[in-house]
Structure formats: structure tokens, C-alpha cells
Amino acid sequence: MTPAEIEKDKVEMKEKEITLISSVQTTWSKRKVLDVLESIDWKSIFLPLPRAWEDAIAALREGFEFKDVVEEMESSGIIRLPEDRQIVASWEPLIKGISHAPPERKVRCYRDITSFDNERQIAMEYVILALRARTGRIEVPKWKELLCEEIDLARKESESDARRLKSELSGHSVCIDSSGDLEDMLRSEGVQVRRVVVDSPALPLDVLRWEMRYHMKQGREMPDDAISMRIKEHLEFLDLLIKSRTFDDAYAEWKTIYRRQN
């Protein structure tokens, strides 16, 4: 290769660098992400939120108040309250923080609204299964079926997300809360990936999803008794959530419990 070709190759590789930052769905975790971002000279940032949120974030960058933007998002059907209350609350500190970034820094939301709606529907089905478990026995086959459906949908979504991210990478990029599937796909596309973990998932359903994915990759089925154990832990967390002042408080307390158990 000529010196010019080598230099061009270096520039192209630089354009394909991305830092993946993992956090959990709480305000205190998203504030940690802000701290990490201060040490990165990022040019674009990708958030796992519906693309329709980009206009809302743009409005914040123009000086509109967060409360007013949320009200407009609700009235236009971009978000649903109370279903999306925790999502909005947890992302508030991070979105507010990056809204003050210089205008040349790009903020992108990369999720499709259909997949976001599917996620809402699956969450409601988990609620129904949890209520049934309260009044009777745990229906492991139905939980397993829903988990497999969710994992499969997430994998398919990651394929389209990876293509979009790769096509929009500009300078050193950052992606928040990307899945392991998305990371694998980016690496397979030749993107240089660095993973930074500020908080690992500790909620029972999150842990169960990870364990299910692991068993599926190994070509094995996760034992029913192991699934049942995680579901019982999920019910325990729901009890804790009812007693707690906020979701953030419940998560923090459960995280302490989870550390002691593991």
C-alpha cells in the first residue's frame, strides 16, 4: 500500500470506532454514564430509544424545558404514561446532560418504534404471568415461551440496529445500553468496539434473560427449576418495589441483595 492508502485506511478505521456503555434503567446509573462521557471525545452518540425521540432531544438542545417536551411527546403519542414513566425518568439526567453538548456532536435514537411497542406488549404479558403466579403455580412453559420470543425479537432487532449504526458512525461514536447481540454484529462488520460497564443488570428477569441466551448459544435448554427460581426472585422484587418509595430505590436495594446472594 502507498503512504496515502495507509493514511486513508487509518482514517476509515478511526471512523469505525465505537464505545459501548452499559448501564441499568435508573437515574443513578444514567448519571454514571454522564461521568464516563466526560472522559470521551465523542462525535456522535446513539441511544436505544425510538427514533421519534430525536425531535424531542433536538428541542431540549434548543432550550425547551424537559417537562414541556415530555408533555408534547405524550400528547403526540410518542410516549405513553404511566407505562413509560420509568423510561422517561431514568433517561432524564442523561438526556439533559447531552443536550448541552456542542451542536456539532450528533445525538441519534436508533430503535424502531415497532420494536419499542413490542417491548411494551411483552412487559404487559410478564405482568399477567406474574399475577397468575401470585394466585397459583408458576407456569414455567409459558414464561419460557415468552422469554424465547423476547430474545428472538431482540436478536432480529439487533441486526437492523447494527446496520444503521454502522452507516451513521462519524468519528468516535458512543452507544448506550446496546445488547450483546448488537456488539457481536458490529464486531463482525469490522467496527472497533470497546465496552465500558458502569452497572451490570441485577434484576431477576434481566439475569434470567442473560442465562437463557447463554444456554441457547450453547445449544442447551435452561432447566425448569433454574427458571422457576429466577421467577420467584422476580416476584420478590415486585414485593420490594411495592414497599419502596421509587423504582430507583427498589433497584438499589435489590442490587445489594443480589450481590450478597452471588
Query: Number of DSSP strands?
Result: 5
- What portion of the residues fall into strands of 2 or more residues? 5-15%
Question: What best-fitting shape do the alpha-carbon axes yield?
Answer: globular
Low-confidence stretches: 1-13
How many distinct helices?
11
Q: What is the element string, with H for helices and E for strands?
A: HEHEHHHEHHEHEHHH
**Biggest sheet architecture:** 5 strands, parallel
- Which class best fits the helix and strand makeup? alpha/beta
Q: What does the model show?
A:
The chain is of the alpha/beta class and 262 residues long. It has a domain at 3-112 and 164-200. The chain is 63% helix and 11% strand. The protein contains eleven helices and five strands. A five-stranded parallel β-sheet has the order 3-2-4-1-5, sandwiched between helices. The longest helix is centred in the middle third of the chain and has 29 residues, at 140-168. It starts with a helix and ends with a helix.
Offer a quick outline of the entry.
The protein has helices at 3-14, 27-37, 53-61, 66-75, 85-98, 113-135, 140-168, 180-188, 204-217, 224-243, 247-261; strands spanning 17-22, 44-50, 106-111, 173-176, 192-197.
Secondary structure: elements and pairs:
Elements: H1 3-14, E1 17-22, H2 27-37, E2 44-50, H3 53-61, H4 66-75, H5 85-98, E3 106-111, H6 113-135, H7 140-168, E4 173-176, H8 180-188, E5 192-197, H9 204-217, H10 224-243, H11 247-261
Parallel strand pairs: 1-4, 1-5, 2-3, 2-4
Helix pairs in contact: 2-5, 3-4, 6-7, 7-8, 9-10, 10-11
